């Protein structure tokens, strides 16, 4: 056992992290507490928490933040990362996701996977005997949402009761995971999007179920002004997700009324902040004056990817206080 000063916050030892809906609110609060604690902790014991442990990272798609923050996270805890992408990326290409998962489980202690489709990731995780983390799939981006709500808590103290508005393509993975995180913590999520880009009824129903015990709720609006009234957080993402570049012109025309500009903030609470998962396209989904202005938290969010993922690795690979699997 490696002793640390960490309190026994959360034990997700051996679990996967594919979708935030797999967490209950108590577990999510505990993960957030652990992230806050690790953010301020550079002790020798913490730097050894994952000593001798290896994280494999399999990426089908490009990444700056997710790749580098996971590599720095595992290294800062005493472990090491192995990265494979493109033709080396094994999930569902050279062999089945199941075979790749069984082989990697014999070599490493956890795996981060970034895929185009969600289904191969589910199959990979079901066959793996080590924790599997979703580093972004077609449906979800849970690591991003974890860092996002950590950032909101730092600014506002709590997500409970916050009004978070997401403008743009409200069907995408970032919007879905953000909404899950907000309702799990008792916040109010508003999507502002044209009918063509609003979340499905199934997604809205699932969000209602997730918020049933926390008071969290989610609603979809077509009128951006109605959605923005009284908002505490204004969030957007690129209008065209990776792999959908051929749809960019169509999306840009439909989503133009949902661009975040200085004018958008006329309808929000006076203290409202701007958030974006990055990378951003200035002059499209967000005006330069907003993303580069005093209200913008985008670089705090990017930094918090590191702190959230350190907590995630400790929670999945140890018992949350330093006892390794
Ligand atoms: N926000 C995010 O996931 O960034 P990357 O695609 O660079 O990892």
Please, could you describe this protein's structure?
- By secondary structure, this protein is an alpha/beta fold.
- The chain has two domains: 20-141 and 305-317, 3-Layer(aba) Sandwich (Rossmann fold); 144-301, 3-Layer(aba) Sandwich (Rossmann fold).
- The chain has eleven helices and nine strands.
- The protein has a five-stranded parallel β-sheet with strand order 7-6-5-8-9. The protein has a four-stranded parallel β-sheet with strand order 2-1-3-4, sandwiched between helices.
- Helix 1 (25-39) packs across helix 11.
- The longest helix is centred in the C-terminal third of the chain and has 20 residues, at 298-317.
- Bound molecules: phosphoric acid mono(formamide)ester.
- Phosphoric acid mono(formamide)ester is lined by residues 63-66, 136, 144, 277-278.
What CATH calls the topology of the largest domain is Rossmann fold
Question: Hey, roughly how much beta strand do the residues contain?
Answer: 5-15%
Report the major sheet.
Answer: 5 strands, parallel
Give the beta-strand count. 9
What structural category do the secondary elements indicate?
Answer: alpha/beta
- What molecules are bound to this protein? phosphoric acid mono(formamide)ester
Helix content: 25-40%
- Under CATH, the homologous superfamily of the largest domain reads Aspartate/ornithine carbamoyltransferase
The CATH architecture category of the largest domain equals 3-Layer(aba) Sandwich
Instruction: Spell the H/E element sequence.
Output: HEHEHEHEHEHEHEHEHEHH
Q: Roughly how many Å is the radius of gyration?
A: 19 Å
End-to-end distance: 9 Å
Chain-averaged pLDDT = 93
Low-confidence stretches: none
Number of domains: 2
Number of continuous helical runs? 11
Strand line-up of the largest beta sheet: 7-6-5-8-9
Question: So what's the CATH class of the largest domain?
Answer: Alpha Beta
């Amino acid at each position: 056992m490696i002793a640390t000063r960490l309190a026994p916050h959360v034990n997700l030892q051996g679990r996967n992290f594919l979708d935030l809906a797999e967490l209950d609110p108590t577990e999510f609060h505990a993960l957030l507490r652990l992230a806050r604690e690790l953010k301020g902790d550079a002790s020798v014991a913490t730097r050894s928490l994952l000593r001798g442990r290896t994280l494999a990272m399999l990426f089908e798609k490009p990444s700056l933040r997710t790749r580098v923050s996971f590599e720095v996270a595992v290294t800062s805890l005493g472990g090491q990362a192995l990265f494979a992408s493109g033709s080396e990326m094994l999930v569902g290409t050279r062999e089945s996701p199941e075979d790749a998962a069984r082989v990697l489980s014999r070599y490493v202690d956890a795996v981060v996977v970034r895929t185009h489709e969600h289904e191969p990731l589910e199959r990979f995780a079901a066959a793996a005997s080590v924790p599997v983390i979703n580093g972004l799939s077609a449906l979800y981006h849970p690591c991003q949402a974890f860092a996002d709500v950590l950032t909101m808590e730092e600014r506002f103290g709590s997500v409970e009761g916050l009004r978070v508005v997401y403008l743009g393509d409200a069907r995408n993975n970032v919007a879905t995971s953000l909404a899950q995180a907000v309702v799990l913590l008792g916040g109010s999520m508003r999507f502002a999007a044209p009918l063509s880009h609003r979340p499905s009824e199934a997604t809205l129903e699932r969000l209602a179920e997730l918020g049933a015990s926390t008071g969290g709720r989610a609603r979809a609006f077509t009128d951006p002004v109605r959605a923005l009234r009284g908002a505490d957080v204004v969030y957007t993402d690129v209008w065209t997700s990776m792999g959908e570049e051929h749809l960019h012109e169509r999306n840009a025309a439909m989503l133009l009324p949902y661009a975040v500009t200085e004018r958008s903030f006329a309808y929000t609470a006076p203290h409202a902040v701007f958030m974006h998962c990055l990378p951003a396209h200035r002059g499209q989904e967000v005006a330069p004056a907003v993303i580069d202005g005093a209200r913008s938290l985008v670089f705090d969010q990017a930094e918090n990817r590191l702190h959230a993922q350190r907590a995630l690795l400790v929670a999945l690979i140890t018992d949350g206080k330093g006892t390794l699997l």
